[in-house]
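F.,

This is the one I mentioned.
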């Protein structure tokens, strides 16, 4: 099972994102007030979380705003703020600071209304005998929702529309393999949204979860629709003049040995090497009669692997192809 964590986007904003910084700090400050305040974490969530039943009765409307600055635990907080840190700066840069704040808050409110609507649908889809069969059943309409994920989902929707091809530097954990790669925003956020849809429809049919998937869906849809409706355009950062370009210090790169598979056929040998996150022009292949060396370098990561061949080959690379992070090429056997 793969786990992907965004670290930063390579499309950096042209100015400092003060509103985005302020939202991050506000969420952190409210979380510590929630933990150490006089109400305590449980009563704080009950008092300032958005309870669907209250909103539907027209009471405690202010919790639509207070709930988006509260979180269930430190993991919930950290996960949300990482996404806000990675994707929020460019949206603030494109919209403008005060408009970005308004966009963020309205996105969170819209997400809450979609979540409330989903709880109503979920309740209506329950069998009529459900309450009698399960006497300790707790209606989702009475469960408070907290978290910035609905508002942040609006930011993700805007980012997908404005910067679909921006590269997201991502930490990938695959069983025992840890690596870094560059993933296009349309791929990363597209699959993220499809997952929310899948889990959202599952929750309507009774799937138990403490995640408000429909808040994510509603916020994302708000971000897409609003960005399109008001005609927000992506803001491109002009390149720095050559004399003002920052100097990158020379450091020893982190060397990673890529996975290499060797397939021996009757008249040829096929080589497959897993080298994610690089360009094909940066890959170097060296071949001798009994060995192959594959290497590539991207920023502070260097891939290097030399493998011995089980049969002699003609040292000439044929049919090189690099796609989806996998390099493949053919060597003719020396018969």
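My design for it:
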């Amino acid at each position: 099972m793969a786990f992907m964590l965004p670290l930063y986007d390579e499309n950096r904003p042209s100015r400092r994102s003060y509103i985005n910084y302020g939202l991050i700090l506000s969420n952190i400050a409210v979380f510590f007030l929630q933990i150490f305040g006089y109400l305590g974490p449980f009563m704080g969530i009950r008092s300032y979380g958005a309870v669907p039943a209250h909103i539907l009765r027209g009471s405690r409307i202010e919790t639509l705003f207070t709930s988006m600055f509260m979180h269930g635990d430190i993991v919930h907080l950290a996960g949300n703020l990482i996404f806000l840190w990675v994707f929020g700066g460019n949206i603030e840069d494109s919209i403008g600071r005060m408009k970005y704040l308004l966009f963020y808050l309205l996105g969170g409110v819209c997400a809450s209304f979609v979540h409330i609507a989903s709880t109503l649908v979920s309740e209506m889809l329950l069998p009529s005998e459900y309450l009698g069969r399960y006497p300790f059943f707790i209606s989702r309409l009475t469960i408070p929702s907290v978290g910035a994920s609905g508002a942040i989902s609006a930011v993700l929707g805007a980012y997908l529309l404005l910067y679909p091809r921006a590269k997201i530097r991502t930490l990938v954990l695959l069983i025992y393999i840890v690596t870094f790669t560059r993933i296009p925003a349309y791929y990363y956020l597209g699959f993220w949204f499809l997952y929310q849809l899948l889990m959202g429809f599952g929750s309507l049919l009774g799937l138990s979860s403490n995640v408000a998937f429909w808040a994510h869906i509603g916020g994302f849809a708000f971000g897409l629709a609003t960005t399109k409706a008001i005609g927000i355009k992506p803001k491109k950062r002009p390149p720095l003049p050559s004399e003002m370009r920052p100097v990158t210090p020379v450091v020893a790169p982190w060397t990673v040995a890529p996975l290499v598979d060797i397939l021996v056929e009757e008249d040829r040998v096929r080589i497959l090497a897993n080298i994610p996150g690089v360009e094909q022009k940066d890959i170097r292949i060296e071949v001798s009669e009994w060995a192959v060396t594959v290497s590539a370098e991207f920023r502070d990561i260097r891939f290097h692997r030399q493998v011995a061949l089980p049969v002699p080959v003609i040292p000439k690379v044929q049919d090189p192809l690099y796609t989806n992070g996998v390099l493949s090429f053919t060597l003719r056997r020396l018969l």
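The chain has a mean pLDDT of 85.

Talk soon.
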